[in-house]
Write a structure and sequence with these properties.
heterodimer; A: mainly beta; 6-stranded mixed β-sheet; 5-stranded antiparallel β-sheet; about 50% strand; B: about 120 residues; 7-stranded mixed β-sheet; 4-stranded antiparallel β-sheet; globular
Chain lengths: ~110, ~120
């Protein structure tokens, strides 16, 4: 059972455009939602994270929007750049697991064309 | 560079064999996590160790085992290997227990070990 569903699988955006990646979760116990960025040949790296007590978190060009009632959250990359081309993973965790267990979405391969 | 090191980078072996993957966490990190990344299953949490003790278990097969040594490095042992075990195996480390008094401890991922089972 996939607890975190991520879409789209792949995304092509023109330089300067907005990239949007969506995730939906099922487990209402989740209360920590990080996004990871992975470049080819590298391990995932934490990009930005949100807790459900806020509906939006912004860090530079990256924004997480969170909709608790819909059990959905999304990553927006403003002014997308070719250097943002990578695979992005949403994830979720809960206090019940001691935040040890990160449940990942299947990833979105983003290509930003020059 | 996350500060987490993993060896070897690549590993090619045959079905039925046993391999050991090694991970050195960032200096000062007490928690080590192992993940498996495959095309069909994505990134899956396998197991966590904290200061030498098993802390959490995910979708880890019985053929797989791990341990964390007194110097905090960790090893993941995979035995009776099958074709389906071919994947990228990542180790991550964090300062302490995620969600502890310090809050959400960020997990820093290593570069991974690519295992190919022929």
């Amino acid at each position: 059972q996939q607890q975190v569903k991520q879409s789209p699988q792949s995304l092509i955006v023109q330089k300067g455009g907005i990239s949007i990646i969506n995730c939906a979760y099922e487990n209402t116990a989740f209360d920590y939602f990080p996004w990871y960025q992975q470049f080819p040949g590298k391990g995932p790296a934490l990009l930005i994270a949100i807790r459900p007590d806020v509906s939006e978190k912004k860090e530079g060009r990256f924004t997480i929007s969170f909709n608790k009632s819909a059990k959905q959250f999304s990553l927006h990359i403003m002014d997308s750049q070719p250097g943002d081309s990578a695979t992005y993973f949403c994830a979720a965790s809960s206090a019940g697991s001691g935040y040890s267990t990160l449940t990942f979405g299947k990833g979105t391969m983003l290509l930003v064309s020059p | 560079d996350s500060g987490v090191t993993q060896t070897p980078k690549h590993l090619i072996t045959a079905t039925g064999q046993r391999v050991t993957l090694r991970c050195s966490p960032r200096s000062g990190d007490l928690s080590v996590y192992w993940y498996q990344q495959s095309l069909d299953q994505g990134l899956q949490f396998l197991i966590q160790y904290y200061n030498g003790e098993e802390r959490a278990k995910g979708n880890i097969l019985e053929r797989f085992s791990a341990q964390q040594f007194p110097d905090l490095h960790s090893e993941l042992n995979l035995s009776s290997l099958e074709l389906g075990d071919s994947a990228l195996y990542f180790c991550a480390s964090s300062l302490g227990l995620a969600g502890g008094a310090r809050g959400y401890n960020e997990q820093f991922f290593g570069p991974g070990t690519r295992l190919t089972v022929l």
